[in-house]
Specification:
- This protein is of the alpha+beta class and 308 residues long.
- The chain has a single domain, classed as Clam (outer membrane lipoprotein receptor (LolB), chain A).
- The chain is 18% helix and 42% strand.
- The chain has three helices and 16 strands.
- The chain has a 16-stranded mixed sheet that branches.
- A hairpin with a 2-residue loop joins strand 8 and strand 9.
- Helix 2 crosses helix 3.
- The radius of gyration is 27 Å and the shape is globular.
């Protein structure tokens, strides 16, 4: 082949290679921010899927105090002398919920069962009070209509709500748009967790360690104010026969501002029924017993006895 022809062919091949390389360079690679946004969408899509498949639950939990917070010196009457181990029952149907907290062995002021109900709009709480003879004399009731269940604000309930609703529930509703993905990954219980973080309007930082191999089940949660750790929850999960990953055991820790542990509790799931049907139409709307002293935030009323 003449030299001139070989040169033309070689130049043509080089042009093709350069053109191909130019096209590759010209392609816009997926940015880190786009990749993180895609991951956040993926996690939230899984959390949004759950309530469409798993709507209701009936769970019984053992609650053990490992480290107890001492009663406040200036408000000793508000302290509940709850034993180191109690049981509570949590039932929910979508946003509706009911918590029956066993305080049967309380020795100071109150005895019986502490009850929280939420019908989707109104939250009611009832605290029985012990009489001098040891029975239940009357109770204190509280009504709020801010759209949140009181039990949703209880840190120890969080894993149950996360399992069914993700982070979008009750007092912990967080905007998906505010979430970012941490650059680091952490190993928890042999799981390579993705860490999602956000800062709420109050300036508190929320971090969620999620296991991609378990439908992004939350294995750890941490609440910080700046660099100060306020609360931490560690959770182990198991696959329920229904197919969902349920918390089995979790530890909750509250910290002092200097880093010392203020209080620690351990929860153990005893039973959990997924998607039960609740026949009682008033299950999530508690009726206060006669004589209950009610604080109704809707009417700004204080200490109003309930009518017969």
């Amino acid at each position: 082949m003449p030299f001139r022809v070989r040169l033309i062919i070689s130049c043509a091949l080089v042009a093709i290679v350069v053109s191909a390389n130019d096209e590759a360079v010209g392609e816009s690679p997926i940015s880190e921010s786009d990749s993180n946004a895609k991951l956040v969408n993926e996690v939230f899509a899984e959390w949004r899927r759950r309530p469409t498949v798993y709507r209701s639950m009936n769970a019984t939990v053992v609650d053990k105090k490992i480290i107890r917070r001492p009663p406040p010196e200036d408000l000793p009457d508000l302290f509940l002398d709850v034993p180191d181990e109690v049981q509570w029952r949590f039932r929910s149907d979508g946003d509706k919920s009911r918590l029956d907290y066993d305080l049967a062995h309380a020795q100071i002021l109150r005895s019986g069962t502490h009850i929280d109900t939420f019908d989707g709009k109104v939250s009611k709480s009832f605290f029985p009070k012990a009489s001098a003879s040891g029975g239940v004399e009357y109770g204190a009731g509280f009504i709020r209509a801010d759209g949140f269940a009181r039990s949703d604000r209880l840190f120890k309930i969080a894993p149950l709500r996360w399992a069914f609703l993700g982070v979008n529930y009750g007092g912990y509703r967080l905007d998906q748009k505010s979430f970012t993905v941490s650059k680091e990954r952490r190993i928890i219980n042999i799981a390579n967790c993705v860490i999602l973080q956000c800062v709420d309007p109050n300036g508190l930082s929320h971090s969620f360690w999620c296991d991609p191999q378990k439908d992004y089940a939350i294995l750890r949660y941490a609440l910080n104010r700046g660099d100060i750790l306020i609360q931490q929850l560690d959770c182990s999960v198991e696959k329920h026969p229904s197919g969902m990953w349920l918390p089995q055991k979790w530890t909750v820790v509250w910290f002092e501002s200097d880093g010392r542990i203020a209080e620690m509790g351990e929860m153990q799931m005893l039973t959990c029924i997924v998607n039960p049907k609740f026949d009682d139409p008033d299950l999530f709307d508690f009726t206060f017993p006669v004589g209950t002293v009610i604080n109704d935030a809707r009417q700004d009323l204080k200490a109003v006895p309930s009518l017969p």
